[in-house]
Amino acid sequence: MVLGNGGCHPVSSLPLLVHFLPLLVHFLPPLMHFL
């Protein structure tokens, strides 16, 4: 994974967010059930 010049730029972190969103949606129901 290579970070561009704009490391803390919102646009560069957007694909990361889109990548982790399904993971979050996948792990949220068991977490809510556990809590």
List the helices and strands and how they pair.
Elements: H1 10-34
List keywords for this structure.
rod-shaped, 1 helix, transmembrane helix, 35 residues, mainly alpha, transmembrane, membrane
Biggest sheet, in brief? none
Q: Quick one: how many beta strands?
A: 0
Distance between the termini: 34 Å
The helix fraction, in percent, is over 70%
Arithmetic mean pLDDT: 72
Keywords: Membrane, Transmembrane, Transmembrane helix
Transmembrane segments: 12-32
Give structural notes.
With 35 residues, the chain is an all-alpha fold. Helices cover 71% and strands 0% of the residues. The model has no long low-confidence stretch (mean pLDDT 72).
Task: Write a brief structural summary.
Helix content is 71%, strand content 0%. The chain is mostly helical and 35 residues long. The longest helix is centred in the middle third of the chain and has 25 residues, at 10-34.
